[in-house]
Amino acid sequence: MTIGIDGMASGLDTGAIIDGLVKIQANQQVLLKQKSSAASSLVTALQGLNSRVSSLATAAKKVAEAGSWAVTKASSSSDAITVSSSADAKPGSVDFSVTHLASGQVSLLKPADLPSTFTIVVGGTSHEITPSSAHADDIAAAVNELSAKTGVSATRVRTGTDGDGNATYQLQLTGRSGADNAFAVHPGTDTSAGTAVASAANAVVKAQDAEIALWPSSATPLKLTSATNTFDDVLEGVNLTVSKVSADPVTVTVTSDAEAQRKLADELVSNVTIVLSEIESRTKVTTKTDDAGNTVVTGGLFSGDSAIRFLTSDVQSALTNPVDGRSPSDIGISMDRYGKVSLDKAAFDKAMSEDAQGTMAMMQTVAARVGEVAERASNAKDGTLTTKITSKESVVKDLGTQVTKWDERLAARRAQLVAQFSSMEVRLSRVNSTQSWLSNQIAGLNASRQ
């Protein structure tokens, strides 16, 4: 281990001298670190751009698909009709009136009329009920325990007052809606004997299906029934839920969703704008004045990059070049002299109203072209941006290795300089010691001669 003697013999600040010499040699490492930082920033910027171009490819693929434009919305002429539609819904309309609403059977029973075991029959299936006691609450609990199977629930309701002024109660049994869910309650387990204590015939509310009449003004309306108040697929992909009986015709209409279609076009242009804006912000040249008053011009990370320049040109061309001799500006897509793209929504709506099929076809073609450009750049395997990122990441890695090697080289150089200066100090110390001894000897000789 080398021991440093900092200027003990020479009087020099050998530590500062060593630091200065190492710093001079470290200039090369500083340059490498600057290059590594710049390369890392470029990789980050390219990754961000690649992510946005990939999103553009996804959006363009969606807009290019004909199915994406088959969006519809359903509406009803009555607030009493709720309409829901799926992606399969097709434009059309239907008139109907509401004849009945669906209801479930409601029956009232006196607990005293029920033996220790009774049977609920629903749809031909028997279910035996054995309450823990004859109390109304225990009977209701036993019925409710099997309600998932029977569809019948029970609760205690007040139905009057006896001669002593005490409240009297009965059991209310309620079944699921729909005529097929009517039920009967038989005392005991033999449902073939005796009379049911509760049945569809003596129900407070009878079980029935909801019913609508299609084209009610025609000579032979077509009647549809449903166990619930919802009718599925009355129009393809359209479900109706009725909430009020009405003899007046109700019209349900399914039309193309112009707003959703406009949103598709806007989504494509917006994603293109995001990509082009990202490129512009990373290419923009900045000007500033340094401490000496000189003007310093600095290009953006993408400045001068031919691959980025070609990508910009390809995206702009794909979006704005003519389709079969017709300019996309005819349907509202345009680009100004600064390269900024936009969608004139009023012009797009006008084009859709005049020629919906032609406008959608043009949008699909434009989107397909933009998608091809975006996919070619961002493809995870061999996209131009992907390969560029991989290449730059390799550069960053190589520069990092060089910086690390310089750390080792500078550490070795410092150790060498410390050893050299320490050796110099030791030798100077010996010389100084010898000089002092000689001086003392000479002084002694001179003294002895006197």
Automatic annotation (TrEMBL):
**InterPro entries associated with the record:** FliD (IPR040026), FliD_C (IPR010809), FliD_N (IPR003481)
Cite the entry's keywords alphabetically. Answer: Bacterial flagellum, Cell projection, Cilium, Coiled coil, Flagellum, Secreted
The subcellular localization recorded is: Secreted; Bacterial flagellum
Q: Where is the Flagellar hook-associated protein 2 C-terminal domain?
A: 207-432
Question: Which parts of the sequence belong to the Flagellar hook-associated protein 2 N-terminal domain?
Answer: 10-105
Domain of life, per the record? Bacteria
Coiled-coil residues: none
Looking up Pfam families in the UniProt record yields: FliD_C (PF07195), FliD_N (PF02465)
The annotated subunit structure for this chain is: Homopentamer.
Query: Which family, according to the similarity comment?
Result: Belongs to the FliD family.
UniProt function note = Required for morphogenesis and for the elongation of the flagellar filament by facilitating polymerization of the flagellin monomers at the tip of growing filament. Forms a capping structure, which prevents flagellin subunits (transported through the central channel of the flagellum) from leaking out without polymerization at the distal end.
Query: Which protein is depicted?
Result: Flagellar hook-associated protein 2
* Species in which this protein is naturally found: Oceanitalea stevensii
* Gene coding for it: fliD
